Amino acid sequence: AEYLVKVCVKTLGFDYLSVKKLEADDEVHEMLIKNLTLFEGLNLAEVPEGEYTFIGLPLRIHCDGAPARVVLVKD
Questions:
Q1: Is 1 exposed, middle or buried, given 0-12, 13-18 or 19+ CB atoms closer than 10 A?
Q2: Mean pLDDT comparison of 7-11, 16-20, 32-36, 57-61, highest-scoring range
Q3: pLDDT tens track for 51-68
Q4: pTM of structure
Q5: How many CA atoms lie within 13 A of 11 on its CB side?
Q6: Residue 74: CB partners within 8 Å, gap ≥ 6?
Q7: Domain extents for the chain?
Q8: From CA 75, how far away is CA 73, in angstroms rounded?
Q9: Cys staple from 9: which of 4, 33, 57, 73, with CB 3.0 to 4.6 Å?
Q10: Which residues is 58 bridged to in the sheet?
């Protein structure tokens, strides 16, 4: 998480429900949500390996989670 923030990554998407641990005190999750836009729970099962441009369009409702429309464009 520190490395991603250090190199100025702005967006992180992954095919798991959350990067947050079950424990209440999760420094990694807090660091990520403070510095990046997270797209959690993506369905990437049928996406072939390769390089893509990721376009994520979250609803701007100022909360911890919201639906989003995401698009992958093959580079």
A1: middle
A2: 7-11
A3: 999 999 988 888 778 889
A4: 0.75
A5: 9
A6: 50, 51, 52
A7: 2-74
A8: 6
A9: 4
A10: 68
> Tokens at residue 34, please?
């403070």
Predicted pLDDT of residue 21: 62
Tell me the DSSP string of 3-26. Answer: HHHHTT--EEE-SSS-S--SSS--
In single-letter form, the type of residue at position 13 comes to G
Instruction: Read off the tokens for 30.
Output: 């807090």
Query: Which residue from 17, 18, 29, 11 is spatially nearest to 72, judged by alpha carbons?
Result: 11
The one-letter code for the residue type at 62 is H
pLDDT at 42: 92
d(CA 3, CA 46): 29
